[in-house]
TrEMBL record:
GO terms for molecular function: zinc ion transmembrane transporter activity. PANTHER family: PROTEIN ZNTC-RELATED, ZINC/IRON TRANSPORTER. The keyword Lyase does not apply. The chain crosses the membrane at residues 6-25, 32-51, 63-80, 101-118, 138-158, 165-188. The keyword ATP-binding does not apply. One of its GO terms (cellular component) is membrane. The lineage of its organism: Bacteria, Pseudomonadati, Bacteroidota, Cytophagia, Cytophagales. Keywords: Membrane, Transmembrane, Transmembrane helix. Coiled coil: none annotated. This is ZIP Zinc transporter. It comes from Cesiribacter andamanensis AMV16.
């Protein structure tokens, strides 16, 4: 778990700090990275997470509702963040810094941190054999997704906040979100009740 936490934290920090060295990332390159990461995560969800989820589901109707709820939760988080983690990002030097939804630096941080926290909980999730296990393939997908998201976050924060130290503080909070989700998942699954809560409620919500 410590190795996973360090990888998640360092990836987010390096992705965000890259803005200081490469202030402008070509939009085409940025979106290609996001498309690849999104496709990879989608494939993992379809071929790994969903079959595993259904293999130990005790109430398939509830699982379906939670997966659907997770989908709408993601739409709500994207509304709060203005969609920057999915490529809706303009260069910091442009005059087109318009973001839809309820975008502010705080709501952006909140939305991305909640998204990252929930992703982190999946890294140690219940298996079909009834015990929690780690997933290296999922870690790779989250890392691929987190680096460009951190780059986008830092790019916007530097422009919106105007103070580098505050933007770095926000980046540090974001970098801790996925490790916090991982620790939460580990702690909650130390007994049978926690494992049941994770497998029957949290896991399907996050998978959605």
């Amino acid at each position: 778990m410590l190795n996973y936490s360090l990888i998640l934290f360092i990836t987010a920090m390096l992705g965000g700090l890259a803005v200081l060295w490469v202030p402008v990332l070509k939009e085409r390159v940025y979106k290609l990275l996001l498309v690849f990461a999104g496709s990879y995560l989608f494939a993992i969800t379809v071929v790994h997470l969903m079959p595993e989820l259904m293999s130990h589901a005790t109430n398939s109707s509830r699982v379906g509702m939670l997966v659907l709820a997770g989908f709408f939760l993601q739409l709500f988080l994207e509304y709060l963040s203005g969609g920057i983690e999915h490529g809706h990002l303009h260069g910091a030097g442009s005059n087109h810094h318009h973001h839809h939804g309820a975008f502010t630096p705080l709501t952006l941080l909140l939305a991305l941190c909640l998204h990252a926290f929930l992703e982190g909980t999946l890294l140690i999730h219940p298996s079909g054999q009834g015990h929690p296990h780690q997933t290296d393939t999922l870690l790779a997908g989250i890392v691929l997704h987190k680096a460009p998201a951190a780059f986008a976050l830092m790019s916007v924060l530097l422009h919106q906040l105007g103070r580098r130290w505050l933007a770095l503080l926000f980046l540090g909070i974001f970098a801790l979100a996925s490790p916090a989700g991982l620790v939460f998942s580990e702690l909650i699954q130390t007994d049978g009740e926690g494992l049941q809560l994770m497998s029957q409620w949290i896991y399907p919500l996050v998978a959605g």
